[in-house]
Write a structure and sequence with these properties.
Elements: E1 20-26, E2 31-40, H1 41-49, E3 61-71, E4 81-89, E5 103-108, E6 120-125, E7 128-133, E8 136-139, H2 144-150, E9 156-157, H3 162-167, H4 187-197, H5 205-211, H6 218-221, E10 245-246, E11 252-253, H7 262-277, E12 288-289, E13 295-304, E14 309-318, E15 325-326, H8 327-338, E16 349-350, E17 353-355, E18 368-371
């Protein structure tokens, strides 16, 4: 299933971060290439591993993977990488850098540090040639002459290696030579090298690093800022089993246009929360609200110009899949029902939902919630 295109959010409006999937349209090949930001080297790693690590050389880079799928349209269906990771200058993603490339944000998927891996390359030291992989390095039996012939060295680039992404799949490209900057692109040689150093080539980076006392998880959990907003945990009502408060801690303004695409709304909701917090918001937008089921009744208050006073209304909502709402779907549906009614209200900011202690007589056994502070006064 394809991730929906994040229309309207480009590098002009959004800084790229770890977990972001982006695409670049290449005019020469007339194709869309997709990439994913795996690690911000200076933000996550070099502060933790120290300047003696080979990773320090790449502190001005992102670790970026390139997807195998190369498309005529900006739709990504597969999660398979063709280039599992390369170091690309962070400055290349800056809007004001005229030497950078024109990327468009597509989606966000959190990076699991258990599956994270790094480019593998050779590095010359005084006592021999080493294989470098993330924080780890292993002395090999390679001669310097062999290393010179292989030329598998840690390198930085200013963009995606479009030609290699094509050539590795047997397509024609402007260049006729694959840039083998990563031992992972050469499985037979890689097996030989791992046999040489006495390690299992099939072992994940996480497990291999753990074997040598380096837990990859510490690079991420220790680096999380304390002020990152946490979503308020749910407390359920004993009688109904429904959460007493719902969606608290999520920010949104109903002073927006009506939306006609849930995917577009979800992107805007995430971007709004990131702007408010200054950090990545938790990846909750597709969380399933199974505790409330597929139906909900929401009461809100708005200013009525004809009555010249505030007025209470209720809206009955149903989940599209007939089983449960997602976080973004529920806020999306509330937004589209109330945004026109709140035009003349001062307070249009979403503050969560609070459960009524009683059922509505017209909707028995249906979760019945009050929208927090929908109105303060007439404008």
């Amino acid at each position: 299933m394809a991730i929906k295109l994040n229309r309207g959010i480009t590098h002009a409006e959004k800084e790229i971060k770890e977990g972001d999937i982006f695409y670049v349209y290449n005019d020469y090949y007339r194709k869309y290439f997709f990439g994913k930001i795996l690690v911000d080297i200076s933000n996550q790693l070099t502060k933790q591993v120290g300047k003696d690590s080979a990773l320090d050389f790449f502190s001005d880079c992102y670790l970026v993977a390139v997807y195998k799928e190369i498309s005529d349209t900006p739709e990504l269906h597969s999660r398979e990488f063709i280039i599992p990771g390369s170091f690309i200058y962070k400055s290349s993603f800056k809007r004001r850098n005229r030497q950078g490339f024109d990327w468009t944000h597509y989606a966000y998927e959190a990076v699991d540090f258990h599956t994270l891996d790094f480019p593998e390359f050779f590095l010359n030291y005084d006592d021999g040639v080493y294989l470098v992989r993330g924080e780890l390095k292993f002395r090999t039996e390679l001669s310097r002459q062999q290393e010179e012939e292989y030329k598998i060295r840690g390198s930085k680039s200013g963009s995606i290696d479009y030609s290699s992404a094509l050539l590795l799949q047997g397509y024609k490209a402007y260049s006729d030579r694959i840039n083998y900057h990563d031992l992972r692109l050469l499985p037979e040689l890689r097996k030989t090298i791992y046999d040489m150093i006495g390690e299992d080539a099939s072992m994940s980076y996480y497990d291999l690093a753990l074997k040598y006392g380096k837990d990859t998880g510490r690079l991420f959990t220790d680096a999380l800022p304390e002020e990152v907003q946490q979503i308020k945990p749910m407390e359920t009502d004993q009688r109904t089993g429904f959460p007493k408060e719902l969606l608290c801690g999520i920010a949104w303004s109903f002073r927006q246009q009506r939306y006609y695409s849930l995917a577009t709304f979800a992107d805007e909701l995430q971007a709004y929360n990131e702007e408010i917090t200054g950090e990545y918001t938790p990846g909750i937008w597709t969380d399933e609200l199974k505790l409330i089921g597929s139906r909900i009744l929401v009461q809100y208050e708005h200013w009525d110009d004809e009555l010249e006073e505030s007025r209470e209304e209720k809206v009955f909502l149903q989940a599209d899949n007939g089983s449960y709402f997602t976080v973004s779907e529920l806020i999306y549906k509330i937004h589209n029902h109330v945004c026109d009614k709140l035009v003349n209200d001062d307070n249009v900011f979403f503050e969560g939902l609070q459960l009524f202690e009683r059922d509505d007589v017209n909707y028995p056994r249906t979760p019945y919630y009050l929208y927090f502070k929908a109105v303060k006064a007439k404008r």
